[in-house]
Amino acid sequence: MVHMEAWLPEEWNERFLAVGTGGLAGCIYYQDLAYATQYGFATVSGNSGHNGTSGSAFFQAPEVLEDFVWRALYATTVVGKEVARRFYSAPHRKAYFMGCSQGGRQGFKAAQRNPEMFDGMVVGAPGLRLPGLFQFFTRWLREVGTDLEGKNATVGVEAWSAVQNETLRQCDGLDGVEDGIIEDTRRCRPDLSKLECGKVGAPGVCLTGKQLDLVDSFFSPWTVNDTLIYPGMVHNGDEASRATVLSTQTMGYVLEWPRYVSRQDLNWTLDQWTPADAVLAVQQNLFNFNTYDGDLSAFRDRGAKIIHYHGQLDNLVDTLVSDQYYDHVSKTMNASPSQLDEFYRYFRISGLQHCTGGPGASALGQGNGSPPPSDKPEDNVLLRIVEWVEGSDGPDSLRGTRFVNDDKAQGVDYRRKHCRYPKRNVYEGNGDGKDEDGWECVD
């Protein structure tokens, strides 16, 4: 059953906003309700059709899964708009959506299936091709392990740290400054053979040839019998952190999807997994859960807009997913980047992990608990989508903020503008990279 809340501020800005969820969660996102209503939006959040953080409600209940895939957001939005109309005795002027991860997928599903619902969207790190991602998690746990500090891990945490250090050594300076942040992971293709045990110059913590082959396989597209399961990972200079997250925070997805959805076997265990499970999960695509339709022309033709962002340090949903979806839309619609710019702009955010956090200028005003840098559209992506939809030019970059010790109260450490895809950021200044004007977006 769909549950929802509508928060209706006294000082209404005549705009409606729906916010997305995350993971398999059936939870109302109170932090985003509070965030958006402070700016005057009539804001709604729903439980995606079930309660709790588990997917157990999907078991032998296809109607609940369909709610999760698309119907719950649709119902929440339709009802929420009517609640706001009756409360204010007036219709909204514009309708917006904001979500990240599962919420980002919900946003794209709405643009693909119900393009009439929203005039503008801020979508982050969208979980597109999500069944394939769950299978990627499963393969990781089977082949790498759940305890990176234990003896049973095939590639332990120290080895992943060596991979990270070598990646930064080879790639950090490609953007013009060595600051611990890789600005464009597309250009980072490190030669990890230098880490092989026994080779001249190998570090104290080295990897065997077998370990290197396994590591390399996770940075390559994964196919089973010509079926693409997942596009792989990018080298981003945060490999040790990501390895830890993948080994410790993914078991719920790994177990719940086959138990409650693909296999519908409550006794299914990780030991039973085979690559055939990966093919099954991807090819089922129940209710088009992959959310990979590339034709957004109906959304575009309404004059609606999308700001899409993805952290290049994302340790759950890889940036490649967003890169490839943007390219898929471009190919499907036969539209060049300049033509897509009319309604759809995508930004790769250096130093941003999954939705929020990370060592870079990652605060964008994106909600999800991330403190807004300011109430100015140039610093706040939610306010920037409003500005674009309602008459301004679209953003050429998104301005991110890094706070001192990640604490807004301590002030700003630095700001950096993140380029509109497919452009990339290069440093042409003379400092340590913290001077905002030293960066340029280039082809």
UniProtKB/TrEMBL annotation:
Q: Which reaction does it catalyse?
A: feruloyl-polysaccharide + H2O = ferulate + polysaccharide
Q: Which UniProt keywords apply?
A: Calcium, Carbohydrate metabolism, Disulfide bond, Hydrolase, Metal-binding, Polysaccharide degradation, Serine esterase, Signal, Xylan degradation
Write out the biased-composition intervals (Acidic residues).
434-443
Q: Which GO terms describe its molecular function?
A: feruloyl esterase activity; metal ion binding
**Highest taxon of the source?**
Eukaryota
InterPro entries for the chain: AB_hydrolase_fold, Tannase/feruloyl_esterase
Q: What is its EC number?
A: 3.1.1.-
Q: Where is this region: Disordered?
A: 358-378, 424-443
Q: Which SUPFAM superfamilies does the record associate with it?
A: alpha/beta-Hydrolases (SSF53474)
Under Pfam families, the record lists: Tannase
What biological process terms from GO does the record include? xylan catabolic process
Family per similarity comment: Belongs to the tannase family.
Protein name stated in the entry: Carboxylic ester hydrolase
